[in-house]
Design a protein that fits this description.
alpha/beta, eight-stranded mixed beta sheet, two-stranded antiparallel ribbon, 8 helices
Length: 238
Amino acid sequence: MARSGRTVRRNDPLLYEVFADQWWQPRGVFAMLHWLAVARGALVPNAARTGAVLVDLGCGAGLLAPHVAGKGYWHVGVDRSRTALRQAAEHGVQPVAGDVLAVPLPDGCADCVVAGEVLEHVVDLPAAVGEACRLLRPGGLLVLDTLAATALCRVVAIGIAERVPHVAVRGVHDPALLVDRGELIAEAARHGVALTLRGVRPSLVDLLTWAAGRGGGVRMVPFSSTAVLFQGIGRKKG
């Protein structure tokens, strides 16, 4: 993929710099990330204590912020893109420059850790899951959404979605990094978090309406299969 004379490889972080001006455009190239942020935010409960912290791994430009505002958390966002972090800060997120494989935050600092559409981009899934769980306080909640390592997902999320304008950016996903659901569950359990997975998909009615230029967004609705896009939620023991 190329834009402005720059070539971007699959899963290249440069992509988020090339399209930095698109983050907060509801019909921009990251439109589907807006839809997912709504669904992700719905899984985050109100904070159970004063001073609760939510750590948003791979926060991008802070798209989750409007959907957890008012729930009582100090929203901390971790990302490698300083351009995205500057935008996140404008939406009330405390920015932290860092990699989700080595988060520069202390153990047990978070009441809730959110990892939205980031695990399918990491080269070391066990390390990323380990970091997310490390950050959680005992009893803390892990919320995530990602793409499954299946042939169906490669067809739907890469072969088809990346060819539909505003659904997925061309080259954003590397099929080799899609997430093995069994490995994800096992790694979380190894760190004391029992994950429950559920499939989600865009509402087909909303998607057709949106594609026709009507409607402000697309709802993500429950789906019987986790073979393409799925959410995960679980609490840390203690």
